[in-house]
Amino acid sequence: MATGRTHRPATRSRGIPEATVARLPLYLRALTALSERSVPTVSSEELAAAAGVNSAKLRKDFSYLGSYGTRGVGYDVEYLVYQISRELGLTQDWPVVIVGIGNLGAALAGYGGFASRGFRVAALIDADPAMTGKPVAGIPVQHSDDLEKIIAEDGVSIGVIATPAGVAQQVCDRLVAAGVTSILNFAPTVLSVPDGVDVRKVDLSIELQILAFHEQRKAGEEAGAEPGALPSAPAPYAATEGDAPARGGKGGGRKGPDGDAPAVMPA
Amino acid sequence: MATGRTHRPATRSRGIPEATVARLPLYLRALTALSERSVPTVSSEELAAAAGVNSAKLRKDFSYLGSYGTRGVGYDVEYLVYQISRELGLTQDWPVVIVGIGNLGAALAGYGGFASRGFRVAALIDADPAMTGKPVAGIPVQHSDDLEKIIAEDGVSIGVIATPAGVAQQVCDRLVAAGVTSILNFAPTVLSVPDGVDVRKVDLSIELQILAFHEQRKAGEEAGAEPGALPSAPAPYAATEGDAPARGGKGGGRKGPDGDAPAVMPA
DNA sequence: ATTTGTGAATATTTTCACAGCG
DNA sequence: CGCTGTGAAAATATTCACAAAT
Question: Average pLDDT in the A43-51 region?
Answer without folding.
Answer: 98
